Amino acid sequence: MKKIFKLLIMIFLAIIITVIVGVAILVKTFEIDRFKPRIIAESSHLLGRRLNFKDMGLGFSLKEGVSLHLKGLTIEDDPDFGKGDFLKVEALSLRLDIGRLLMKRQLVILKVEIQSPELIVIRDKEGRINLESLGKPSAQGAAREILQRVVSFNQGGWGPSVALAQ
Predict the structure, then answer these.
(1) Whether the Cβ atoms of residue 162 and residue 151 lie closer than 8 Å to each other
(2) 134-159: b or e for each residue (b if 16 or more CB lie within 10 Å)?
(3) N or C, where is the chain less crowded by C-beta within 10 Å?
(4) CA dihedral defined by 142, 36, 70, 45, rounded to 10 degrees?
């Protein structure tokens, strides 16, 4: 009976180690850069402002799990307030729930770490601030979304493969 119990424990540990090594290898070899245009487009649409970043990568640790790292993140200001950046972040780290991502295809962020943020808030003569329009799609963004949906529909619903000018 003890031999069977020891064998089951060894098999269980082997499975756990194999899964951990497999996830680590997947994270290290996964080409996340191919998703950069889609991440930028979707994020810009959700914010109603143009978002960009210089570099991104995936990380894995036993303590933290899977994380997404962005460097040089910028969000443009509302065009009514200026042409500069509304937000600049040197580095951003997002810890992801990999279970939900794999099982339910939901992106759940468990933890956010921001390094060196710079937020520029402007108030105009009418008392409005540039923060109010964050998350509201602009007219140009709404037109772009309609065009992308038409292109997506015409290509069988798999998403646009045509690059649209920014």
Answers:
(1) yes
(2) beebbeebeebeeebeeeeeeeeeee
(3) N
(4) 10
